[in-house]
Amino acid sequence: MKEVFLNVRENTELAKGIVKMKLYCSSLPEFTPGQFVNLSVGNFDGVLLRRPISVYKFNAAESTFEIIFEVKGKGTTFLSRLKGGNIPATLFLGNGFELGANVKKVALIGGGLGCPPLYSVIEKYKASGVKFYTYLGFSSESKAICVDDFSKASEKLTVTTDDGSLGEKNFITNAFKKDIFAVNPDVVLACGPTPMFKALKALNTGIPTFISTEARMGCGIGACYVCTCATLTGNRRVCTDGPVFNLKEVIL
Amino acid sequence: MIYSPLAVKICGVDFKNPVITASGTFAFGFEFSKLFDIDKLGGISVKGVTREKREGNPGPRIAETYGGVLNSVGLQNPGVEVFINNFLPFLQSKKAAVIVNIAGNTESDYCYLAERLSGTGVSMIELNISCPNVKEGGLAFGVKPDTIQSITREVKKRSKKPLIVKLSPNVADIAENARAAEYGGADAVSLINTVRGMAVDADTRRPLLKNITGGLSGPAIKPIALAMVWQVYNAVKIPIIGMGGIMTANDAVEFILCGATAVQVGTGNLINPLTASNIIDGLRKYVEKNKLGNLQEIRGKLLID
């Protein structure tokens, strides 16, 4: 964990209202896939709190990383307009996804803006021979992101949309359900909205499943206890004990 | 202690500077110690500690408002024994004064905590009778002068540590409440705790906090806090620790001009983890620029025609 200043290297609109930014820092700390950054929004129009955003790609050689976020309110509007530097930020935060040495086949299940952090898992483990079966769900084609990157890096990619404008008209968890026995993954990693996690839990697959959760945050470093996640062992901090939790532990 | 233009003694406790991190925003110091040297701080007021472990309120527990932050954590903490055994040794290895913020459901909870902590190496105890986010205790003791005076008296009897009473702004007359704490034997008062507030989403028609209401903090409440510190300064003789929306060294100076001996930085820690550290640097520059021997020379010296 480190407090740094970031420079914006690239700032592009990926889809309607969805921005991808490449950020540079002269000395990036170590990164675990699934970790996030907490970006300052200055004091833009009365908005104070930093914005926690997950990492899409990490490039140690370039000392850069990429984030993807949807422009929803004042804070993300401010971030989407940034050019150059120096943006105060704390990084990299949270526990992230870790794969055991015996894991050979992974199912990735992403919903909307929950897709990007799953790509950072592929980036890290692809070289060691882990095979990825990827399932991405979006509301419609106009909101679909990262599909090409996942397509290239996965053994198989399945895309669904709520309106059928891209891929099958279905929920992504239903698409995954059809494949479970054929794919038989060692582990399932998921990131997306709460209804997606509920549907995943209802599948009752018996396969170890880890989900990256989201909550409105304060400090982002574990000190203020506002980003709470209800679990079987009590209320845990999303920013520090998570954002990745074992699905069977989380009370949804 | 080494002479420093920022040094101040409060109720016999040495603070190398008047900047204290506020309860509930700094946990027990460990997380922030990874980002800056917390030895630099004057003091740390730890996350509110209760007799038993508490889970706090369901989420969402935070919402943003214009220039402010609403929270409804509800005193989640591991309980006093875990605090003493697992967290206090780390805090005591640091050079900041350790203030333990205590909360309970009943008067006897507060008395128990004061007695239990008196046998440890903590510097001071902060009586939290002003939390707006718990159903029992908390604010129930902190609204009326008679209950403030009686709980302060009972806790003071059992406390071997200097006792700070943390006051709520959600009251009829905070100056009267400060006097009640002083009569009860408080060694100092700290103010203000958060202002009760609420945020609503017009589209979903729902409150932004699961708890519906919460405590407002941040720059939005600074004018309220300054006015209350000034009122209390004119009402009591015991030291005042001022807080409410302090983000910069100038903000801290404003509280000291209104009568505060020290300040607490709370929401500022969330906005930028280096806020308290930057304020200490800024105060040093302020003292130099204004050629002060010690920052305390301007305490209460608000210029009024």
Supply database-style keywords:
heterodimer; A: Elongation Factor Tu (Ef-tu), domain 3; Rossmann fold; Dihydroorotate dehydrogenase B (pyrk subunit), domain 3; 3 domains; B: 305 residues; alpha/beta; TIM Barrel; eight-stranded parallel β-barrel
Strand coverage percent of chain A:
35-45%
Number of helical segments with 4 or more residues of chain B: 9
Rg of chain B, Cα atoms, Å: 18 Å
- Count of DSSP-assigned helices of chain A: 5
CATH superfamily of the largest domain in chain A: Nucleotide-binding domain of ferredoxin-NADP reductase (FNR) module
Q: What overall form of chain A do the CA principal axes indicate?
A: globular
Q: What's the CATH superfamily of chain B, by name?
A: Aldolase class I
CATH class of the largest domain in chain A reads: Alpha Beta
Low-confidence stretches of chain B: none
CATH architectural designation of the largest domain in chain A: 3-Layer(aba) Sandwich
User: How do the strands line up in the largest sheet of chain A?
Assistant: 10-9-8-7-11-12-15
Main β-sheet description of chain B: 8 strands, parallel, barrel
Q: Could you name the CATH topology of chain B?
A: TIM Barrel
Distance between the termini of chain A: 29 Å
- Give start-end ranges of low-pLDDT stretches of chain A: none
Q: What summary fits the major beta sheet of chain A?
A: 7 strands, mixed
What does this structure look like?
The complex is a heterodimer of chains A (252) and B (305). With 252 residues, chain A is of the alpha/beta class. Helix content of chain A is 18%, strand content 37%. Chain A has a seven-stranded mixed beta sheet, sandwiched between helices. The two termini of chain A are 29 Å apart. Chain B is of the alpha/beta class. Chain B is built from nine helices and 16 strands. Chain B starts with 7 loop residues before the first strand and ends in a 16-residue tail after the last helix. The relative contact order of chain B is 0.16. The interface between A and B is medium-sized, with 30 and 36 residues.
